[in-house]
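User: Before I run my own analysis I want an independent prediction to cross-check against. Here's the chain; please return only the structure tokens and, at the end, one sentence I can use as a sanity check.
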Amino acid sequence: MSKLEALLWDVDGTLADTERDGHRVAFNHAFEQAGLDWQWDIGLYGKLLKVTGGKERIRYYLDEFNRDWPRPSDLEGFIAALHKEKSQIYGDLMAQGGIPLRSGVLRLIREAATSGIRLAIATTTTPANVDALLEQYFGSEGRKLFEVIAAGDVVANKKPAPDIYQWAIERLKLPASACVALEDSQNGMRSALSAGIETVVITLNDYTSHEDFTGAALVVDQLGEPENPCQVIKGDVDAIELVDVGLLKQLHGVS
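Assistant: Structure tokens:
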């Protein structure tokens, strides 16, 4: 078994709870600005999260929940323009600083970096959205912390396909067996596992708590802080309060 050399992070729902109070809100603002009467409430958005990727999510919404809406002649162009506007709105929302990092994320990132473990991002969100998040939470340090950023349309197939993880691993020039993935969804877990990453850690959120995480090495409610310990949902580990580098090395060694 290779030693642990890199942590690959999902973004939305993993680094921060950006789905409900970030992307969903930005979509609704974009719809309003486009003169559309669409409104994605919290419940509907949970159903739409079955599909990864913002443009794909709009298309899925039309196909499954708004079939009677008259399609423009250039539907793909319409969706692309709508999604571009949504991404701009999302960036503005992130700049306002209203969505904090999830518990334990900053601690683990800094601990890993100090320990010489490399960091990468593997996400279906756009590069612009990743840049907005990194700038908000890490400032100019963000691009230095994360050596590889695999985002958006750099690959043809989005999660649960393995492409985005494979792209990141190739650029890290590491075997998949040297990596641990941190995810929040079944689609993300399946993507990482299919790419050959054997150790996947899941941090649940409101949208993914019902999903099947068979195959994950560990499922917790959060990564945890000393004053706010995590709760283990699934995993063959002793009583823990934090997901730290030592625990990740332990999980990686037995996967």
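Sanity check: The chain has a mean pLDDT of 95.
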